[in-house]
Structure formats: C-alpha cells, structure tokens
Amino acid sequence: MNQSSLLHCALDRVFCRARAGSAAANHKIQSIAQSVAKAPTGQRTRRRRVPDHRGRPAVPFREKEAKAMVRINVNGEERQLDVSDDMPLLWVLRDELNMTGTKFGCGIAQCGACTVHVDGAPTRACQTPVGMLTPDSKVTTIEGVKGKAAQAVQAAWQKLDVVQCGYCQSGQIMSAIALLTDNQNPTDQDIDAAMDGNVCRCATYVRIRAAIKDAAQTMRA
Ligand code: FES
Ligand code: FES
Q1: How many CB atoms lie within 10 A of CB 65?
Q2: Pocket test for ligand 2, best of 169, 173, 174, 205 (most atoms within 8 A of CB)
Q3: In angstroms, rounded to a whole number, what is the distance separating the alpha carbons of residues 99 and 122?
Q4: Residues 150-159: pLDDT tens digits?
Q5: DSSP-derived secondary structure letter, 40
Q6: What angle do CA 63, 65, 70 make, to 5 degrees?
Q7: CATH topology of domain 148-220
C-alpha cells in the first residue's frame, strides 16, 4: 500500500469518529489533509513486498517511478535503456536485454549465479545498480565471453562433463575465466579463493576444480 493509500485509510477511520462529533477528530482530519497536500508526487518510491511473477524476491532495492536514460556497454555493444538507475544489472540483462544466460539465484550476492565481468573483474550482477556503471564500463556476460581462457574453460568443462543441472554454471564459468585470465597456474588455494562465492547445489565442486586445472594446463601448453 503506498503512502497516499495509507493516508486515505487513516482519513476514513478519522471521518468515522468525526461523524460521531469529536473535535479532536476534526483537528486530526485537518492535519492529515495537510500531510497529503505536502506529500511529494514526482519522486515517490514503491516497494514490492512479495516475490513477483518472475520469482524476483521482495524489495531488493527501491524502485523509483522516475526513470532516466542509462548507457552501458554489454558484450561490446552500446545499449541505451530507459530504466531506473538503481535497477540491478542482473534485471537489466535478463528483463530488458533478454540475456538470460546469467542466472538469478539469491539476489543478495551470496551464490554467484549472476556473475558477469565488469572490466574483466567477476561481479555479482544482482547487487550492481546499473547506475553505478559508466558508459565506458565493459560488461561481459556468458553470451559474449571470448578469448583464450574462455575457450580453454569451455573445452575443459565439456571434456570433464562438469555440468549437472547447470543452473550455477554460467556463474562458475565466468569466475573460472576471470581466474585463469590473471593466473594460468592456479594452486588449490587460488582456486578456492576465486571460486569461493560460487555455490553449486549439485555439488560439482570436484569436477569444477579438475576442469580449472585442465584449462590452465591447456593455456600453458
Ligand atoms: S543471484 Fe547474485 S549472487 Fe546470487
Ligand atoms: S550444476 Fe546444478 S547447481 Fe551447479
């Protein structure tokens, strides 16, 4: 219920008392009416209190009614979007650009399913407001990732049959590519540190580790 509706409910209750002849109620009506008149109209925000039909969780951010043009670069393409600048990048990718390879898991930067690269760094898209990006920021998703590390990871993932249900895997792959781009000879500790935030409910961790080592070997050869 928005601010205006709440005020009108309050007014209804007070009107009932006013009809019963209460002077205090009449005074209350005047003060509520003044509050309604003073309430700002252009910048009100609304918050969802239940998950929506797409399963997006309640209230991960304040969604402004006022929108602005946002410019971002995704997979090498300039995009101009009419969205609120506090909309998470994940929603921009999935809902505005129809790039559904990046997955929604937890929405609170805890599972890694939404991992993309921003200027090469693994980034949780669910907690990255699109307004934080500049037009020069380079966003890379699973649909557009390429290069030596990406090829090696893709080949290793297929060779070792890493994927089970697949839901977490675009995030796992994006984190693995970021690791191998910087470090072509990762130790177990390096792999643990890089992949720590990527959760797999199918527990494919052993195969992921083996595939990262296999991809690293391919890159060094
Ligand atoms: S959906 Fe972003 S970390 Fe889980
Ligand atoms: S493969 Fe199923 S969640 Fe990771």
Answers
A1: 11
A2: 169
A3: 17
A4: 999 999 999 9
A5: -
A6: 75
A7: DNA polymerase; domain 1 (1.10.150)
- Sequence-ordered strand ranges (E) for 27-99: 45-46, 63-64, 68-74, 77-83
pLDDT reported for residue 31: 54
What is the architecture, at CATH level 2, of domain 63-140?
Roll (3.10)
What are 86-143's pLDDT values in tens digits? 999 999 999 999 999 999 999 999 999 999 999 999 999 999 999 999 989 999 999 9
Strands 77-83 and 138-140: unpaired
Neighbours of 64 (CB within 10 A): 17
Q: What is the pLDDT of residues 18-56, one digit of tens each?
A: 444 455 545 544 554 454 444 444 333 444 444 444 545
Query: What integer pLDDT is reported at residue 168 of this predicted model?
Result: 98
First to last CA, the chain: 62
Residue spans of the domains in the chain: they are 3-38, 63-140, 148-220
- Ligand 1 probe mutation, 126, 168, 195, 198, most atoms within 8 A of CB: 126
Distance from Cα 81 to the centre of ligand 2, integer Å: 32
C-alpha span between 21 and 18 (Å, rounded): 5
